[in-house]
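Morning F.,

Quick status update on the modeling queue. The single chain you submitted on Monday has been processed. Sequence for confirmation:
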Amino acid sequence: MPPTQVRPKNLAGYLDSMTMRVFEAGMSWKVVEAKWSGIQEAFHGFDPEWVADMSPSDVDHLANDPRVIRNRRKIDATVANARAMLDLDSTHGGFRRYLESFSDYDALSEDLQRQFHFLGESGVWNFLWSVDEAVPPYQEWAATHLPAKERERWSSAS
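Structure tokens below.
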């Protein structure tokens, strides 16, 4: 089942969508979806400045919060991703401008995986699709970017 597609109105919308992909890495999307409202609440609606300013003790607190998926590495990744997103937003005159500054999908995908933590091939495709960015059709993309086992898993989930 593909993620919900929404064109974010602000940076918090991008961070929300990206963080969902981070938490889905290696997990069932159903588990993440079931906890998502609690995760959004715990991260203050993904206000990127609030998330970027989280201290190690704030992260410790979230790592023990039953509303969230208590994976310390993914919580740390969310904080780092908020910082990276704020930086790219500032240096490119907007995060959408950053996304649109690449000549093709593969160049953007490579840069997203370099700039952000816990975003792999599938996470990038799902993130970009969910924020209404141009992506290759899923079947074409999967044929060249995913191993056969993962293509089968995604096909059976839809």
